[in-house]
Amino acid sequence: MEIKVQSIKFDADQKLLDYIDKKVSKIEKFYDGIVRTEVDLSLLADPQNKNVKVHVFIPGNELVVERNNDTFEGAVNDCVTTLKDLLVSEKERRYK
Description:
- By secondary structure, the protein is an alpha+beta fold.
- 35% of the residues lie in helices and 33% in strands.
- It has a four-stranded mixed beta sheet, covered by helices on one side.
- Helix 1 runs parallel beside helix 2.
- It is elongated.
């Protein structure tokens, strides 16, 4: 599975990129047909100003999850948790 990370209007450090790669690659075990994953990182004006948007491309569909948090790591964890549930339900729906 290809994981593409884009940081908007800032440069993400290698430690954050490695963390994202480690966490997002775990969703592959919940759905075999993932084509690619795109992760967008951005900063907001809110107190919870770290925004993460994850696009997961599967055949015939695209799942999008967006979360805000105080840290990028927290937002990535929230996205991955939600994506696990979405992928499991998508797999169950497809392979009934």
